[in-house]
Design brief:
The protein is mostly helical. The protein contains 13 helices and no strands. The protein starts with a helix and ends with a helix.
Length: 282
């Protein structure tokens, strides 16, 4: 479960950092810049590795689905962060493993009773954190926009589940780095078209480039860790562990931005960490 922990820590930092450029210049230019910076980092990785990219045409749809839905998930996430508090959005987005588990079971996965119990702890923690997060002061001030924030958060979680499932299925065919690189190409095409459609001529956040470059590297590290899990048994469990990113993001928001965390929400985060620790020890 080490790969899931790497993804959780990387995405936890990434999501916290995304709040600042998203609110300053808007989610669409921010996602476009992060996608480009991540692709640059990946391309350097591919060139240094020297293995090149082999395209398996009949299965290219897998990486296309992964890239398109990951771009949509990131855009919905950044838009939610731009409108609502981190302590509300992050735990809801972290529910994506529930749908990923449905996909896995539909394809024959059979988790053990202990794994189901651990997964249940994680998902119960996510549910508690998301429901209690809606009662904090920031959420009350944004009551008029709450439906939009919640809708974006749920949409992001669904898109993440589809993207990760498709990416893990593509890894045995294309390879770890190759899958992420190809998916990033489709993601760039997706967000590029959205940028031209919704924000033509909007300036890219150049003054945020150092931060966006760091975010791109964190994003690539998380996505590479999750897709690499496709080479191992039960990749869906790695997906569950990665959902702990929400607890990392919320803790950073509490410590650095002083966003309030209710006692019941803290209990939800303890459930998340406990379930993740149990899965990581299996």
């Amino acid at each position: 479960m080490v790969l899931g922990l790497v993804a959780a820590l990387s995405w936890g930092d990434y999501d916290f950092l995304s709040r600042f450029p998203s609110r300053a210049v808007g989610p669409i230019p921010t996602v476009l810049a992060v996608t480009i910076s991540g692709l640059v980092a990946l391309s350097a990785w591919v060139l240094i590795g020297g293995d090149g990219i082999t395209i398996v045409w009949p299965k290219l749809w897998l990486v296309a689905i992964a890239g398109i839905f990951f771009a949509l998930a990131t855009l919905a996430l950044f838009a939610a962060f731009a409108l609502g508090p981190i302590t509300l959005v992050a735990p809801i987005v972290a529910s994506y493993p529930a749908l990923a588990m449905v996909f896995a079971v539909a394809h024959g996965a059979r988790p053990t009773a202990w794994q189901w119990l651990s997964i249940g702890c994680v998902m119960a923690g996510v549910l508690i954190a998301s429901r209690s997060g809606s009662n904090n002061e920031d959420a009350a001030e944004l009551k008029a926009e709450m439906k939009t924030v919640l809708g974006l958060a749920v949409l992001s979680g669904v898109c993440f589940a589809v993207a990760i499932t498709a990416g893990q299925a593509a890894v045995p065919i294309f390879g770890d780095v190759e899958t992420v690189w190809l998916a990033r190409i489709f993601g760039l095409l997706t967000i590029g078209l959205i940028y031209l459609w919704r924000s033509p001529g909007a300036p890219l956040p150049l003054r945020w480039l150092p931060l966006l470059g760091l975010m791109g590297c964190l994003d690539v590290a998380a996505l590479a860790a999750l897709t690499a899990a496709g080479d191992f048994p039960s990749p869906e469990l790695t997906t569950v562990v990665s959902s702990a990113f929400a607890a990392v993001t919320v803790l950073l928001a509490r410590l650095l931005l002083k966003e309030p965390i209710a006692l019941i929400q803290l209990g939800g985060m303890v459930l998340i960490f406990g379930g993740v620790a149990a899965l990581a020890g299996l």
